[in-house]
Amino acid sequence: MARLYGAVMDRVVPAVLAGGATGAAGRWAIGEFGWSSATTLLAVNTIGCFVLGIVIAALPEREHPIRLALGVGVCGGLTTFSELAVDLARRLDAGDVGEAAAMGVLSLGLGLVAFLGGRAVSA
Fold it and tell me: Are the CB atoms for 42 and 108 separated by under 8 Å?
């Protein structure tokens, strides 16, 4: 069993790494559109949630190598929770509590709607 697991991991790890690089390059490219950082953040996270919804619905097996490459790799490299946390903290530090709350609710709301939409498209 360990030998089979090792063989699968030998294929999965490079695929996840390549997917992560692809997602990160996509995030960088979207950032080059010249949008505000908030718009870019909402765009990459919403797109990533939509794609993740499709991937999870299409590949329900949790350990499926393609699901890992696309979900963990591409979507993980594209989306950025850490940037959302920094953005919210920056707004709170500046005393913009309403803006921080709106950004948090909008980001989570759009992400959930996009994820559910992706699942629906794939079903």
Answer: no
- CA distances to 29, 74, 94 from 49, rounded to whole Å, are 18, 11, 29
- Classify residue 32 by its DSSP letter: T
Of 22, 21, 28, the closest CA to residue 44 belongs to 28
d(CA 84, CA 106): 11
CB 78, CB 44: distance < 8 Å: yes
pLDDT tens profile 49-69 = 999 999 999 999 988 999 999
H-helix or E-strand containing 98?
helix 97-122
Instruction: Dump pLDDT digits (tens) for 83-107.
Output: 999 999 999 999 999 999 999 999 9
Q: Is the separation of the CB atoms in 60 and 123 below 8 Å?
A: no
The residue type found at 103 is M
